Amino acid sequence: MTSYDEASSDADLYTFDYRPIDDPGDDQRFTRYWDVEPLQRGPQPVPGWLVTDRAALETDLGVLKTGKEADVHLLERAVPATGERCVLAAKRYRDDQHRSFRRNAGYTEGRRVRDSRVTRAVNRKSAFGREMAAGQWAHAEWESLVRCLHAGVPVPYPVQIDGTEILMELVAVDGSPAPRLAAVRPDRDLLVDWFDQLRGAMLAMSAAGFVHGDLSPYNVLAAGERLVIIDVPQMVDLIANPNGADFLQRDCTNMCDWFARRGLDVDPQELFGEVIAAAW
Question: RIO kinase domain: from which residue to which, for each copy (predicted)?
Fold first, then answer.
């Protein structure tokens, strides 16, 4: 027989606090974090800064960056009742323009699409094919971000993917979006440290069997004293892709050229040899 105190304790465990929530306003929506499949959410452990409350509203704060394949928006995720908030980067691939990605065939060698209907539509560049292509590139970037995170490569934390939209960590400095490496002028000590970080990131990618494929000072963020690598949808298998070594050579040249112009004595061939050796 259950005592009154035990029954009261059990009842307390199942007491729900319902609060009315207003409908989203313009440029707002309820978060879909818990609506997507588990593999469409970021890896564990979830960082403490990320708001995951089901009552969170997401507000589009405007465009941070535009590109040929996708636009990046600032997105605030906030819980009105508690004041919890975070600002994310929302990368949205364009359905009708993503196929303009340069050297697309070289990056996709070794990738396979199982659905022949999708393959034919993509090759014909029909409206359905363009939509599927955008989804494929969004999914490719999502997988690359997760893979980089597991390999210890400094990338934005991937929050979730939903269709052609990826939500990820907004890399910031003092509350503002971090600048691209191409836009900064560091002192020599920081330059040396950044090159060591870059080498470490490239070694980690190579050891895990992949290469960025489009690495340049425009695809690296300078977040204070640390570097963060971005824009990874075209990441390729260093060994399986016949262009893998060429892409790596170009990545090394692009990055070493920037550091050399800032006065650091670096050799792209030496970096290439060190990085490609890590793959074996």
Answer: 28-277
